[in-house]
Amino acid sequence: MNKRSLNAKFFRVSLKVLLFLWVLDSEAVAQDKKSLQLMASDGIKPILSFPHRLSLPNESDCQVVTLRFYLHEILLKHEGRLVWTSGNSHYLFDSSVASTLDIPLGVSAATRVDEISFVIGVDSALQVNGAHSGVLDPIQGMYWTWQSGYIHWKLETESLDSASDSSLTWHVGGYRAPYNSLRVIRYAVNTASTNYLFTVDIRRLINDVWGRVPLSVMSPSAHAMKLADSFQSCIQWQD
Amino acid sequence: MAGLTRIFTVLTVIILLPALMIVESGQWPERIYNLSEVQKRQACIDLGRALFYDPILSRDSTVSCSSCHSSYVAFTHVDHAVSHGIDDRIGRRNAPALMNLAWSNSFMWDGAINHLDMQPLAPISNPLEMDSSLPTVIQKLQDSQLYRTLFSRVYGDSLITSERMLKAFSAFLITLESRSSKYDHVHAGEEQFTEQESRGYALFKDQCNACHTEPLFTNQSFRNNGIDLNGRDYGRGEITGNATDSGLFKVPTLRNVYYSRPYLHDGRISKLSDVIGHYASGRFPQTASMEMNNVSGMNEQQRVDLMAFLLTLSDSAFVFDKRFQYPFKLFETVGVQH
Fold it and tell me: Which of A33, A91, B193, B285 has the fewest CB atoms nearer than 10 Å to its CB?
């Protein structure tokens, strides 16, 4: 067995242990509800605390200091029919607060669901609707002040290599064409699943766009669109 | 009989003309923003007014919104080509006049801000203006007995959040309505233009109204008026990223234009007659927006006539309205300090 497959096996086992522990402890189980959980990974193991050390493609080291992202419009379907929707609710993953985002879903654990989807970012209609509260309060630091618009997701790293400063600052937003960087995550899921665990593979994200986008992206742009595409592909359901 | 018909027709036109003009030119569109019941309360308007005039929003509490938006010059920064902020830092653009914001669907010369609620965030965080941050401002307000009192009066408790603060700002800014100029009185049938003003009005409708559309005297669009951009500021293009938007700036209202000097996005022209001179030349580069084709050049008499009409857009009742000025009485009544 080579190192790569060992890592993959370790990753899967780690996630399953975490999922098991989380299920035991979760509010959703206490209420016999389905639930959605999101967390970051470095491609080898789940990230349980931030800052988190990571090697960059240029072989310099960095630490991931910030990962934050919004999601909304969670849809549960069965055989093409809508079973449940989160409505207008928005949720914020914030690495400075917790390493996981747990979202109780409004259906019983026994409800049959074969597809789950959600949108990464903030709904376009809310973007032009004035000031909001809660996770959408601009004080959360996820709103641009120099031009109106929420930052859908944010990844920031700090360089640990004095010889090569490759700190990343990616603030990805934009709700209007041609730079609408909202992205839909959609997966077919096992009908019997009660808890849906998704990971954001940060290493894969960085590797995917390395050299194709600048180290700093902080406005709606073609670069932000590339980042949004990669972010979408790095969010994966852990069966 | 034919003579009687002619007299009847002339009389009909004379009687109905003012009413027709109200319908044609003076009819105001619906306001864009629907304020909540809370925002309509005088206490909320007072809170927004206090925030507008209070330098507490800036990093070192020296600069307020009113520093660059003075009520007595239609809420612009008189005699400064571009605004200057904290530590005398020089800004980039001319502070726009503030009025009739309830009809505005975008703000700033480049339209960067898409809702009135969100407008205060830009100057608060701009390092050339207030150089502060939202968390800092909210903390300072929470630490202020004055603002705990003012927020309690509006919301029933002293919780201070950015949403509450921003909506109070909007409540005040929405009240800045200017619609009591001579132009308005003429369209209400209460006054009449002089002959010169009438000639200027006709000229205005022929050459200017496509962009500075009545009764707001702006169509809220972004246009290139043919000035030399000097390659320093790409306006709307900086926001949209579209090359075709480069060099476009928001069409400003002409209401109170006499008060709101200097002019243009970078304040490069300080006299209204010189602005008219720019348009009167009738010669513009190819980059100018197509509406500039309407501007065919004006002789000296026409320039004076147009100026006479533009002066009828001055609304002294608005400019000197005490409800919009520094709230001495409010601060005295509350009777507490920061």
Answer: B285
Residue B119 lies in a domain: yes
CA–CA gap between residue B45 and residue B39 (Å, rounded): 7
Closest chain B residue by Cα to residue A221? B241
Q: Kindly state whether residue B13 falls inside one of the protein's structural domains.
A: no
pLDDT digit of tens for each residue in chain A (239 aa)?
Answer: 555 565 666 566 665 665 555 555 555 454 689 999 999 999 999 999 999 999 989 888 999 999 999 999 999 999 999 999 999 999 999 999 999 999 999 999 999 999 999 999 999 999 999 999 999 999 999 999 999 999 999 999 999 987 778 899 999 999 999 999 999 999 999 988 899 999 999 999 999 999 999 999 999 999 999 999 999 999 999 97
Does B310 lie in the same domain as B326?
Answer: no
Say yes or no for a CB contact (<8 Å) between A145 and B115. Answer: no
CA of A138: which chain B residue's CA is closest?
A: B162
Question: Measuring CA to CA, how many Å separate A42 from each of A39, A69, A205, B93, B321?
Answer: 10, 16, 10, 45, 61
Q: Are residues B201 and B152 in the same domain?
A: no
Comparing CA positions, the residue from A115, A121, A100, A126 lying closest to residue A23 is A100
Residues of chain B neighbouring A131 (CB-CB closer than 8 A)? 115, 117-118, 162-163, 166-167
Question: Where are the domains positioned within chain A?
Answer: 3-237
**Residue range of the domain that includes B135:** 37-177+319-334
**Is B87 in the same domain as B141?**
yes
Pair (B172, B232) in one structural domain: no
CA B241 to chain A, closest CA, distance in angstroms equals: 7
Are B205 and B282 part of one and the same domain? Answer: yes
CA distance readout (Å), A200 to A9, A235, B88 = 17, 5, 45
In this structure, what DSSP letter does residue A228 have?
H
> A146 vs B125: CB contact, 8 Å cut-off?
yes
Q: What is the total count of domains within chain B?
A: 2
CA distances from A109 to A112, A186, B309 (A): 8, 20, 72
Name chain B contacts of A178, Cβ cutoff 8 Å: 241
Name the pTM for this structure.
0.87
